[in-house]
Amino acid sequence: EIVLTQSPTTIAASPGEKVTITCRASSSVSYMYWYQQKPGASPKPWIYDTSKLASGVPNRFSGSGSGTSYSLTINTMETEDAATYYCQQWSSTPPTFGSGTKLEIK
Amino acid sequence: QVQLQQSGAELVKPGSSVKISCKASGYTFTSYDMHWIKQQPGNGLEWIGWIYPGNGNTKYNQKFNGKATLTADKSSSTAYMQLSSLTSEDSAVYFCARRRITKGFDYWGQGVMVTVSS
Q1: pLDDT digits (tens, 9 = 90+) for B19-38
Q2: If contacts are CB pairs under 8 Å, which of residues 60-89 in chain B contact chain A?
Q3: Any chain B CB within 8 A of the CB of A46?
């Protein structure tokens, strides 16, 4: 199965700061999906098809990448963005998730 | 609007089984795969398998073969997952999630916490 490695595991950012989360795949994948999860809640779809924002996601978020390297970027951090972000692939079965990046407010 | 309403938390004994449900509304239940995903405390997300309610076809993560059994009742638009021979390793939150091929898992249930303890 394809292993997704996210970095960093935890990051703290100040409001207004630019944040980038990386997801590296053990084999090439065609697309990457990202989910946002806050404590006690279910994951929410955040980015699909590598770079498309899910409904309601602010346009300060963006996604990019190809092959084995993908990233999620927040142009200007806001307090509401504090959450754990997971990447996910389904280029091969089983679909797999990264272990998550916890984003905190500094 | 699309909703996936899951059953309540379960406290079960080691060696027993549990069946949890996911009632779908707001869309045609038989037209989309329903997936199940495990999340252990402090851990990431692990895909268990899917069922296509339209014809009952299923596919499982090899890791969960023999552990999870997925079924669906078209008449009530409800998907079920039975977990058997429970151990402490099965203590987790279990989510159902609808998948759209181009959009990933686009709707999630609220999750069911299963606690395996004597």
Answers
A1: 999 999 999 999 999 999 99
A2: 61-63
A3: no
